[in-house]
Write a structure and sequence with these properties.
Helix content: 25-40%
Distance between the termini: 66 Å
Radius of gyration: 27 Å
Number of strands: 22
Strand content: 25-35%
Largest sheet: 8 strands, antiparallel
Length: 380
């Protein structure tokens, strides 16, 4: 799913757009015991509760695709009878009205989700009447051509509110506040099936993880039967490893700067395209070549890539490129540069010593104080 498709589903979680048919939940304590379960027709809930659930549901679809929102494909085996995808399909088709399959789902989550503390399993069923769109992207409200039926599950920590004093308006006094168990924003969740090309894709799911570096792989494997890609942090680390091992002891400042500038240029050229910009093994090699890596340094690149990332792994450019800053660091000095002006920093040899040279203009500040830069006098 691309950002536009994710946002289209998020927009359903408002009073005017809501078509959610049913909401179910299971409260689990720290010992993995079911404390209580509930099931309700969503629109029969009090308005205040509906708004709170909207917040949790929208949060499950918030974040950055490729980082904490991951498009996962089901392996073929999972679509056979007894497979994870086949089970989720039966759960969706039950419209959450079959208590047996719903309890089985809760048991699967409890058995695979590793979390220290209490949490709430929330799951909704919805049938979205997808409006058509004109060729120029305008929505035609009366031209629906498909119904997107799906379930959305989120797992929310439940923690005690902080102790403190509260004001009692009736007595006009302050008293010790009663601590309540509060449902917090989701740690994990998934949308099934995926809403690809604005229609149901039962072969894919969208997975959410609040912390991309702690994506609960056991839960993903047992509930979704899918394989998690490298996390955003792991992709960045893998890319740095590839650069370091490819260049070896001859890592050159100009080559590193060229890689940064070429990645930034690629992102700029791709910014109007909704699909994430990915680099496969050959494209990373082409990037290195374009950035000035010598041909002999690339002789073993395929082996290095397979060992570091995996033969068929692609890297998301937004995960490996730092477009916010260009940093040059030594043990004693850190220089941060506007990423679009990396050309201002160069390395030169001065009196036999390697030096960083930073081009400056008339506006220079030291600890917030502007200094005057003496201009070199021109010889007559």
């Amino acid at each position: 799913m691309i950002k536009q498709e994710i946002n289209e589903i998020k927009r359903l979680y408002t009073p005017s757009n809501c078509s959610i048919t049913r909401i179910c939940g299971c409260y689990v304590d720290g010992e993995k015991n079911k404390k209580t379960t509930f099931k309700e027709a969503f629109l029969s809930l009090p308005e205040e509760e509906i708004f709170k659930y909207f917040e949790l549901l929208r949060k499950t679809l918030s974040g950055t695709p490729g980082k904490n929102l991951l498009n996962l494909e089901f392996p073929l085996a999972s679509e056979e009878e007894g497979g994870t995808q086949e089970f989720l399909l039966r759960l969706r088709d039950s419209k959450l009205k079959d208590d047996t399959i719903l309890d089985e789902f809760y048991d699967k989550v409890i058995g695979s989700y590793e979390y220290v503390g209490n949490y709430l399993i929330l799951i909704i069923h919805d049938a979205y009447d997808v409006p058509g769109k004109t060729t120029d992207g305008l929505t035609m409200e009366d031209a629906s051509d498909t119904v997107y039926e799906y379930i959305l599950c989120c797992i929310c920590p439940v923690n005690l509110s902080k102790p403190g004093l509260s004001y009692d308006a009736e007595t006009n006094e302050f008293h010790n506040r009663v601590r309540d168990w509060i449902v917090e924003v989701p740690e994990a969740g998934f949308l099934f099936p995926a809403f690809n090309e604005r229609s149901s894709d039962i072969h894919s799911t969208l997975y959410y993880s609040k912390n991309p570096e702690e994506a609960h792989p056991e839960f993903v494997d047992f509930i979704l039967g899918a394989v998690l890609p490298l996390s955003a942090g792991s992709q960045k680390e893998t890319f740095h490893t590839l650069v370091a091992e490819t260049l070896g002891d001859e890592a050159d400042y100009e080559v590193i700067k060229n890689i940064h500038e070429n990645l930034t240029e690629m992102i700029e050229e791709h910014k109007e395209i909704p699909e994430p910009l990915m680099l496969d093994k050959q494209q990373v090699k082409n990037l290195f070549e374009k950035s000035g890596v010598q041909e002999e340094k690339l002789s073993d690149f395929e082996k290095l890539y397979d060992a570091a990332a995996g033969e068929h792994t692609s890297l998301l450019v937004d995960n490996v490129a730092n477009t916010r800053t260009f940093e040059v660091k030594t043990p004693d000095v850190v220089v941060k540069v506007n990423p679009e002006r990396a050309d201002l920093v160069n390395t030169v040899m001065i009196e036999g010593r390697r030096c960083l040279v930073i081009e400056i203009n008339d506006h220079v500040e030291v600890n917030g104080i502007q200094i005057h830069v003496n201009k070199p006098q021109q010889s007559s």
